[in-house]
């Protein structure tokens, strides 16, 4: 039952080239930076990543992206990641953009064993009709576009069929975890981390605070340990290393 491994390198040692990864985080919040860095050190490549965004400020998934290690991204936000945008428009990267709520539900559905579901989000747009550029040809043309999806009417409203997402591995970061893999997330880091963890066939968590089983109130658990196969305890320095994307001050 003790799922703790000694190092991040050991935790990701069996992630192969070409693997699919669900990665937690929301902007710079709750990003499993230490596990991502361990993948970078192993020089794993041709990865298919499912994440809300693909890193920012040269941290998180941005380090794998800049090194050319990511082949495909399924996400909902490019934001201020200029390298992400450059690779996409240059035809170096395949990108499937999904409405943010749909992405969250596709991850949750995959983890819950639900193969597909209907949602009104995207009906009447290229999300449902097809034609969204997945890959450009580097000269302004579209080399690969999204296919049309099934649309059905229920009680007078149209809904588009979306498929659940399952990935080979998931990487997440939690504020607290016990040795059985039960996890607690802090504030906005809870947005995508639990869902990414559910979607992975092998889920690896880095935790800022490791406690013994029984120390977390069962009512406080955000993700049960059944969804987690491995976890590492961060050092105090690693736990405190949190970047701020846009710093604002008041006078």
Automatic annotation (TrEMBL):
It comes from the Bacteria. The keyword Transferase applies. SMART domains: CoA_trans (SM00882). This is CoA transferase subunit A. GO terms for molecular function: CoA-transferase activity. Belongs to the 3-oxoacid CoA-transferase subunit A family. InterPro entries: 3-oxoacid_CoA-transf_A (IPR012792), CoA_trans_fam_I (IPR004165), CoA_transf_BS (IPR004163), NagB/RpiA_transferase-like (IPR037171). Keywords: Transferase. The keyword Transferase applies.
């Amino acid at each position: 039952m003790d799922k703790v491994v000694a190092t991040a390198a050991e935790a990701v040692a069996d992630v192969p080239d070409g693997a699919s990864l669900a990665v937690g985080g929301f902007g710079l919040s709750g990003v499993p930076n230490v596990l991502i860095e361990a993948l970078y050190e192993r020089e794993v490549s041709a990865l298919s990543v499912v994440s809300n965004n693909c890193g920012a400020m040269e941290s998180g998934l941005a380090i794998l992206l800049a090194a050319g290690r990511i082949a495909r991204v399924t996400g909902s936000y490019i934001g201020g990641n200029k390298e992400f945008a450059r690779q996409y428009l240059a035809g170096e990267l395949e990108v499937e953009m999904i409405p943010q709520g749909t992405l969250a539900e596709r991850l949750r559905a995959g983890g819950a064993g639900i193969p597909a579901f209907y949602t009104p989000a995207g009906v009447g747009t290229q999300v449902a009709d097809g034609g969204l550029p997945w890959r450009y040809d580097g000269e302004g043309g579209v080399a690969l576009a999204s296919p049309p999806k099934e649309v059905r009417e229920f009680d007078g409203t149209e809904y588009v069929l979306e498929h659940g997402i399952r990935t080979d591995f998931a990487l997440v970061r939690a504020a607290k975890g016990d040795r059985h893999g039960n996890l607690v997330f802090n504030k906005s880091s809870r947005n995508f981390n639990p869902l990414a963890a559910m979607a992975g066939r092998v889920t690896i968590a880095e935790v800022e605070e490791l406690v013994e089983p029984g120390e977390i109130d069962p009512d406080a658990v955000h993700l049960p340990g059944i969804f987690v196969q491995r976890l590492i305890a961060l050092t105090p320095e690693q736990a405190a290393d949190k970047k701020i994307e846009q710093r604002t001050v008041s006078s």
